[in-house]
Hints:
Low-confidence stretches: none
Number of helices: 13
Distance between the termini: 78 Å
Helix content: 40-55%
Amino acid sequence: MASVDVVVPCYNYAHYLEGCLASILSQRDVQVRVLILDDCSPDDTETVARRLAAADPRVEYQRNAQNLGLIGTANRGVMDWARADYVVLLSADDALTPGALARACDLMDANPQISLTYGMALMMSDEGAPLCPPDVREPDTRIVSSEAFLREVCRTGNPVPTPTAVMRTSVQHAVGPYDPRFKHTSDLDTWMRAASQGPIGVVNAIQGLYRWHATNMSAAYQRRPIGDREEVLKTCVAFAERYGRDFPAFAGWLAEMEAQFGREALQIASDSFSREGDDTWEGSLAFARAHGGASLRSPAALKFLAKRLIGRKAVLDRVRRRAAPASPD
């Protein structure tokens, strides 16, 4: 039976801990251990975590001596503590679905070359009934080559929902800790480095539940006009510098992604220029210029140039007239 170590970083999420732990400890057909890592939470995380640890010998609780942030806390678990066949990093506000670990481990046990396996995730909120997807016993699976995975990252972004990621512990230790340079994309960086060690497994089933709320780390980036594009680029550049010789086609995929991001940023700048009270267009335009999206030969750039020549006041006046209700005859 496969063994899985699940690291649960927790900061101020005491009210989610019990549900998170229940989703782990109820997993079938695997041996699990759980480490709750409390990053100096000011709420009652310690009380709840100690109660959960006392109730089940598979659960261990540790509290950081000082606040390390998510990446520092995660690394204490995945690098210093994990020793099972597989390791999972699961935020205290997220959850596993029934049978998720068995499905992932079955695929990886049967294919020792796989470095990482992931599946689908559902978004959940604090409102409404709890989500409980069925335990799929024989899901469709596939194995994606390292090259195909890396190309997909450059084309469409991070395909791996973190609550669904099951990594071979030996691979985690081989590629090293989560990189603190990438505060919001350290997960993507880690998945890419895992792909450098072997192919990626995909389980066609709902493997995790990702909770969306205002205090998510990713929420701040969702509110930025260009999102996390800048950090994604930096993450991929770092991968190219380290592993480019092993994946010579990656440089071309990265160039295509950068050009696409530039075009998208230019469109975002143009749209914000036409919105009253939205002064974010300058930052988006600067990003587009830095990443090849502001060529005056492109139709989008010419359209934006025309807007700027007309002047923002005239553009906004035109937008207001179009939005105004038609006067009655």
